[in-house]
Amino acid sequence: MRNITVGELRSASLSQLKEICEEIRQEIFQTVSVCGGHLSSNLGVVELTVGLHRVFDFPKDKIVFDVGHQCYTHKLLSGRADRFHTLRQQGGLSGFPKREESAYDCYDTGHAGTAISAALGLAKARDLKGEEFSVIALVGDGSFNNGLIFEALNSLHILDTNILIVLNDNGMSISPTVGGTHDVLTEMKEGESPCEDVALFERFGLTYMGAVNGNDLSALLPALEQAKQGLKKGSILLHVVTKKGQGFPFCENAPMQTHGISPKSGMSEYSTALGEELSAIAKENDKIVAVTAAMTDSLGLRPFFDAYPERAFDVGICEEHASILCAALAAGGMKPYYAIYSTFLQRAFDEIIHDVCGQNLPVTFCIDRAGVTGADGETHQGVFDLSYLSFIPNLTVAIPKNIAEFRLMLRKSAEYPFPLAIRYPREGTEGTASEFEFGKFEVLHSTMSDILIYAAGERCIRLAEEIRERTLKGNVDVTIVNARFLRPVDSQMILSRHENTVVTLEDNVKVGGLGDAVARVLRNSGKRVLSYGFDDTFLPHGDCNDLRDRFGLNPDAIAEDLLRYACR
User: With 0-12 CB in 10 A as exposed, 13-18 as middle and 19+ as buried, what is 374?
Assistant: First the structure.
């Protein structure tokens, strides 16, 4: 696609702007169809982003995208159209705002609820330096459920600065927006008791404007101009209503299914197993409840929600609240399962420690998208969970070798009376599984070799098998063990093994995970421990296998290491 200049936007007639929007919409659809990415959310904000770029002076003015997955039009309008075909590809454009990528991206985002806090910080820095420019936070209504939003609003008076909050209200996050805030916004855009609801925002120090049709440029542009002028007097909340998937009927009618598009791999998804097994367990046990934070379908919970609606809770983008809710449900005698992406569980770290594990409550965390996730980049790589979960007292951390073992772990978890975390990647193989004890490893391939590999999870077991294929060419065999529990680690097996070269493989950063746990057990043994995981860095976007090879889990390099040690 051609690069569209600011001058072209400023001089374009309304009909010409509509043509530009259609050109952008087609480019987004075609690119995402090839590269994957967030489709329906970006289709919905085309007119809104075009309007912002026409009215404001970027990059002098600053815009912070909450979450950031809806920034594709912004990228196309900021000199990156000729590189847009590289979206989410290794070495190409990120699917999220990136300061290192362009001066138009003033703040990196990737998780919900951060934009207003960031906008306030940028605006206050502007004031302190005596500069003049506008700061805009573009926030979806799904994020308005997040507690961070209200923490930021609470500090508007304290910080004494002016920002524009554009509330993009499409009634969706990944799943449909839920909760009291959603109800308030619905009343406001439908004209029901608007005065009381507007007063809520005005008490925070905002002037409310709206609701404006964000897909209608003739209504949107005057509202943006008015908001820009209003910033001279104080902070503004501009309520804009858009349609997720706008312009493509399939996306409009299936906004959840087209929120994120991924190339099909042909592998099974762990989330499917979660929905099936949890529903089956719940049929036999009326204490089973399921909790999610705005990701019912992505995490495979739709069958459970349909079968047991009275025991299914989507609390919106409120990861910390969901953790405490699970703790209290468990304290009240229920058996809660909290399904969540690894990278989003980071937000509830304190609650895991204090509320769940501190009280030793039987909450089961089902941690999806663990390990390297690929194309969404730094903010979505689930490579820290083994580290931040490994040292929490009372918590059992499980890492299934395949989907069959995951199913078995879920079934056994129903009677497990302690906090449990099961972490797994998005995709895998069904495979087979045998009975196990919590905290016990499994020998998958045994040999009299002096090299033993402890592999955590399906990906690393496959990696261990790849490494073995290479070492066999050098006449060196290795023992492979399914290290399916990080906590408690199987100290009895680790201490009883005869091998002097001990290798650990984990789809996680090297610091604080399986390698450190095994090394602690063998600290005074005289054995050599070689720990392999991801390097101490934030992993960029790219293909999962390429990232694995580049950042610490290269089978050729590891096999070379082992052959070198075998020759000593």
Answer: buried
25 part of the active site: no
Of 75, 244, 335, 468, catalytic:
244
Rounded CA-CA distance 386/399 in Å is: 9
Q: What is the token pair recorded at 502?
A: 């001990």
Tracing tokens 């590289």 back to the chain, one arrives at 86
One of 27, 277, 319, 320 is an active-site residue; which one?
319
Q: Average pLDDT per run of 10 along the chain, which is 568 residues long? A: 88 95 96 93 96 97 96 96 95 95 96 96 97 97 90 93 95 66 72 67 90 95 97 96 89 80 79 98 97 94 97 95 98 98 97 98 98 94 97 98 98 98 97 97 96 98 98 96 98 96 97 97 95 96 95 97 85
φ/ψ of 82, rounded to 5, equals: -70, -10
Domain covering 268-428 in this structure, CATH number: 3.40.50.970
Name the CATH code of domain 442-566 (choices 3.40.50.920, 3.30.1700.10, 3.30.70.1710, 2.40.50.140): 3.40.50.920
Tokens of 156: 């508007």
Evaluate the CA torsion angle 504, 345, 159, 74 in order and state its sign: positive
If one counts every other C-beta atom within 10 angstroms of the C-beta of residue 232, the result is 8
Q: What is the pLDDT at residue 253?
A: 84
> Token pair of 526, please?
């005289």
Q: Which residues does residue 292 pair with via DSSP β-bridges, in sequence order?
A: 314, 339
Query: What does the DSSP assignment read for 286-300?
Result: TTEEEEESS-TTTTT
Residues 6+ apart with CB under 8 A from 266: none
Residues 328-373 pLDDT 10s:
999 999 999 999 999 999 999 999 999 999 999 999 999 999 999 9
Identify the three-state secondary structure at position 160.
Answer: coil
Domain ranges of the chain: 6-261, 268-428, 442-566
Confirm whether pTM is higher than 0.85. Answer: yes
Whether 124 sits among the annotated catalytic residues: the reply is no
Contact 366, 385 (CB under 8 A): no
- Do domains 6-261 and 268-428 share one topology? The answer is yes
Q: Convert the pLDDT of each residue in 154-203 to its tens digit.
A: 999 899 999 999 999 988 656 666 666 767 777 776 666 566 667 778 88
Give the active site residue among 228, 347, 487, 527. 347
In a 10 Å sphere around its CB, with 0-12 CB exposed, 13-18 middle and 19+ buried, how is residue 216 labelled? middle
Q: Which residues contact 193 (CB under 8 A, 6 or more apart)?
A: 187
**Beta strand ranges found along 29-128 (DSSP E):** 37-38, 62-65
560 belongs to the catalytic site: no
Find out whether 186 and 139 touch, Cβ atoms under 8 Å. Answer: no
For domain 6-261, is the CATH number 3.40.640.10? no
Q: How far is CA 498 from CA 443, 471, 486, in A?
A: 14, 19, 21
